[in-house]
Amino acid sequence: MTTLNADPAELQKFSDLAHRWWDPASEFKPLHEINPLRLNWIDDIASLAGKDVLDIGCGGGILSEGMASLGATVTGIDLSEKALGVARLHLFESGQKVDYRLVSAEAFAEESPARFDVVTCMEMLEHVPDPASTIAACAKLVKPGGHVFFSTLNRNLKAYALAIIGAEYLLKLLPRGTHEYAKFIKPSELSRYSRNAGLTPQTLTGMNYNPLTKVYALGRNTDVNYLLHTRRET
What we know:
Layout: H1 8-16, H2 29-46, E1 52-56, H3 62-69, E2 73-78, H4 81-94, E3 98-102, H5 105-111, E4 116-122, H6 131-141, E5 142-153, H7 157-170, H8 187-196, E6 199-210, E7 215-219, E8 225-232
Parallel strand pairs: 1-2, 1-4, 2-3, 4-5
Antiparallel strand pairs: 5-8, 6-7, 6-8
Helix pairs in contact: 2-3, 5-6, 6-8
């Protein structure tokens, strides 16, 4: 029997907030603000129109809907029933088409290997017990030569100070307890996990927040939040 790669406390945490997922002034405000950045970054690299795309850890569907709006055929998977319920309900408001499924990345990889042109796994790896297992599932789900995109948090003192002390306690951008520092992942670790799974790292990009202007931007600084583009070996 395969152990589910999920933390029940993490699932409960996001399930309790699920009804607020599409409120741009809620705890999910940062996701709404960074979504155009990460969406454009993905589209610039992979050209989403006409692609078969999988969004792992889709939550309420903010990124999933964004990719669908650019012409992708999108499947979103998550292990929170409440979040998926909110995601499905929002489709009636947005008019987008996304196939949402309650299934783990590992189980879906057994069911649909090498099915997708693009796989995204954003803001999720720092919430699972075994990120290497999730990354291996991403590699199995994407077609040879296909794209896999990750985003997560670096593990260092600056990331602790800004992502936890600053964002959760001082600026209150996120609820307290959203992140656990021990689960943060260094870019070198994420790159190693990716290579071990048969994914070749391509581009490493930082995502930074200016507390004075309250604006997020992509750049070279990967000290805190960062994104990694990989491709499956052919």
